Amino acid sequence: MEAITTEVLVLGAGPGGYAAAFYAADQGKKVILVEKESRLGGVCLNRGCIPSKALLHATHMVAAARESAERGIVFSSPTIDIDTLRSWKNSVIDKLSSGVSALAKGRGVDVMTGRGHFESPNTLRLETSEGQRFIEFENAIIAVGSRPVVPKPWNLGNPRVMTSTEALEVESIPENLLIVGGGYIGMELGTVYAALGSAVVV
What we know:
Blueprint: E1 4-11, H1 15-26, E2 31-35, H2 42-47, H3 49-67, H4 82-107, E3 110-113, E4 115-120, E5 123-128, E6 131-142, H5 164-167, E7 176-178, H6 184-196, E8 199-201
Parallel strand pairs: 1-2, 1-6, 2-3, 7-8
Antiparallel strand pairs: 4-5, 5-6
């Protein structure tokens, strides 16, 4: 199969990758944006900042209702429908990811889905669901993002040991939750689960 050619190849469609792709396209370059996931937006949009902020927004109402008692406004205890909460959070992700796709299309950025492997300084082999494709490029931007890792002693295959990815799915509300890591995602998830009723230790 004949190789596809482009001026700029961007590997990874997170906030760094798609912003770079859009900028290059705005400068008149022919751009191919490669992403292994079906949705654009990377970790931030799909498994990080955005779902975390959506859950924070939803659970803020629970905390605000509890605190309003100090001001003489008392609400009954909320009923938490986990499935509806999770579906709403996913709908926010879908809407924003669709927005990124629309921006790519509007700028003439060619989006390809698959896992990229560099074959040479100017060739990328793309593994797609339909087979292999080859992309020849003049310049490449690598913006593949990050992924959570469970330390080996804790990687026991136990569903009670979660990364932030699993915690964002909110399958259940644990009675007690230990969060290892006090960065923004740990603190945001701790706040969400505490509002939902978990006893949280960071």
